[in-house]
Structures are given as C-alpha cells and as structure tokens.
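Format notes (please read before filing issues)

Several people have asked whether sequences and structure tokens are stored in separate files. They are not. Every record keeps both together, in the order shown below: the sequence lines, then the token lines. Line labels are part of the format and must not be stripped during preprocessing.
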Amino acid sequence: MAKEKKLFYCRECGNETAKWQGKCPGCGGWNTLVEAPMVKTAAGKAKAAASAADAEPARMKDIAIEAENRLVTGIAEMDRVLGGGIVAGSLVLVGGDPGIGKSTLLLQMCKNLSDQGKKALYVSGEESLKQIKLRGDRIGEFSDSIYLLSETGISLIDGAIQKLQPEIVVIDSIQTMYDENVDAAPGSMSQVREITGILLRIAKSRGISIFIVGHVTKEGNVAGPRMLEHMVDTVLYFEGDAAAAYRILRGVKNRFGSTNEIGVFEMKGKGLVEVPNPSEYMIQGRPVGEAGSVVTCAIEGSRSFMIEVQALVCHTYFNMPRRTAAGTDYNRVNLLIAVLEKRLGMRLSDSDAYVNVAGGMRITEPAIDLAIIAALISSQSEKVMDDRTVLFGEVGLVGEVRAVPQCEKRVAEAMKTGYRTCILPYANKIAIKKSGNIDLSEINLVGIRNIREIANRREWS
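Then the structure lines:
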C-alpha cells in the first residue's frame, strides 16, 4: 500500500515544505502555504524499470546531423526571439504578468500557422471554448486547421494530441494542469514538475512543438520549481506594464538560437502588432528644448535602438532625499549620483532625484550610464542638451568613461535615426576610426575620457 503523507505548498511560488509555516521560505510571502495530500506511487518506478532495458548508447560519430527546418510563425518579432522560427519537437516556456498578452500572442501565432495549413491545438485550463472564441474574434478569422480544447487532465490532453497529431500545441497554463497519478493540488511543485516531464516526452518522441504558458510570482519569476526552466528548450518572458502600449518579448534561454534577443509589440484593439523600428517609437513625442532629457542608444541581443532617458532633480523638504529609478537599476542610479557628488561637486544631498527610461523599456546595461549622468546634470543645472546629440558609455567610480561593446552598431543606429553628434568613450572613437566602417562625414564623434568633460560641452544651451 502506498505511503501517504501531507505537504504544504505556497500559492505564490509553488515552494513545498514538510510542515506549515507562517512565512514561505521560498518567496517570503505570509500566510500563503496551503495543505495538500500527496501519495507516492510505484507507477513511475515500474515504468522506469521497464524502459531501462531498452536504453542503448550510440556513438557520437554515428549520429547524423540534418539541417533544422524551422517553422516560421508569421510574426517576425517572435521569429527573431526564437532564433529564426520554431524548431520541431521543442518545448517553449512563455512567462509574464497577468494581462500582459501571453495568450493573445500565442493565439495569433496559432492563427498564422493554421493559415499556412499547419495543424495547431490550443489547450486552455482557464477559459471555456466560447471565451477563447470571443478573444479570437478580435484577432481575425481562423481557418479549419486550428483546434481548441478546454481541459486540465494531462491524460486526456495526451489522448487528444495523439489522436489529432498537430504540429503545434499550446498549453495555457501549466499551473492549471494536473496528473491523476500525483495526489497533489494543481499548481504545486510536484504537479508542475510531472506535467512538464510528460509534455517534454510528448514533444521529443513525436516531434511536436509545445508552448507552455507559465504564471509568474511577484518577483517576476515563473511560479513553480526552478527546474522547470532547465527542462524546457526555450524560455521567453513577456514584459511591460499592462497599462502601457508596448510589450517586450525577451528570450532568456534558447538552445536553438542566441539569448537576450527581444521583440517589440504594441497592444491594439485587434491584438498585438509588431514594432519593426523601435527607435522611432521609443523617441516619438520626446520634448524639445527641455532640461533633463537626453537620448542614448541601447543594445538588446543583436538589436540596437534609440531610447530617451529623463531625469528630474528638485529640492526636497524632508531629511532624507528621495531616489527613484524607473526602467533601470535603482542601485546603479544611486551609484552614479554619488559619483556626481564626489567627482563634479554637485550638491544632490538636499534634492530628490528621479530617473526614468521612457517607453516602458527596462535597460540594465551599463552603456546608458553616461546618458543618466547627462540627464541629471541637465535637470540640476537647467541646461538643455542639443536635440541631435546622442550619448552612451559606461561610467566608473572615479568618473572615468569606459568603452562599451558594439559601438559601431550604436553609432550606425544614431545616424539612421538622424542624429549628427555622438558623445562616446574615447576608446570607442579610436576603434571606430581605425575600422573605417562608418562614414564619419555624416556624424561628429566626440570622445571623452571623464565625466568632467561632458559638464562643459558646447552641446549644452
């Protein structure tokens, strides 16, 4: 007889503990642990023992490698993040905040693939078939190659997949699915781990590409065991404020392509629309002739785009000045403020400082340090940076401006967008001149070694 025991799992992060605690040891949430019975069965051990005799190693030199035929989704931004398209038999995890547009994006992907004659199965454990149809009507008319299933039992879903034999399967979401052989609540770590293992075997054995939607915790990580991200082939995060227009699809893991690629989308009435030129959208509506606003060039993956950095410095009436950072690292902003106070003698201890990366993007690379420095100087001194000047560079603790990678791509993007002056690290300027790949007659490169040089630039007015 199977041995019964009880576990407690967290409703927020899925962490399991042997006894109840007021505070979850995984995410730190209070009163989030709930009791769930669990039974260890011998079914898994029997299956493993039966298949152990069939395992036979193969020589590496005998394995033939064929060119991967990727399935193009019809969404260029998504294909970019996936590395050129969907690889057959891949398991993709898509995470994001509630209401960000994960289900809409995957439904649009299924529509495009069904229009190409590919058979797609959309499985939802959260919505009924009518609810999915109502959401799909906003996107457009669907072909006969897309099928819907409202089910949470993995055995029934496996049977439907085996019967239909689709090329693409979407599971929305993994936290609602359950396996009757695991006596635990849906969404618990045991269920999520077992369901993902079953889906992985289905994808690899039958060559079916499966997309899994995963809920996220308040920290922004996919709920459930961390092993979930190690089991899948690709991990995509859909980021952005639900109230904002822009959404960022970011690839943080990809066994079949490069990581840290991003795709930019705009949410409209008929679904998500691709943004092929993010630079134009990110600096659209930028105020002209206003202090505290500068433009920099950021790199995400293989993509460069222009982005506006804003700063506001104002006198505070409290003992502790306030520091706020939106779209960039808060600790990095505090570090740069300290550099300004020490190296340039700026008095910011009696002022509130607010830094914002406009457009809803989150940029953490140090190449925007120089832009943050310039925006703070501009706001504090009420000087305005020239509208056709772009800045980028990493700033060190002694005020030095260090070189950043992919400088040629940044300068080329600035030229394409219409900027005529680029303030950059001196080492990057020398490297660009030596390469000779950029026509310097169309842009003026200004190389600086220290932030003291930027405080007295003629680009200020």
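For reference, the curators noted about this record: The first strand starts at residue 4 and ends at 10. The longest helix spans residues 189-206.
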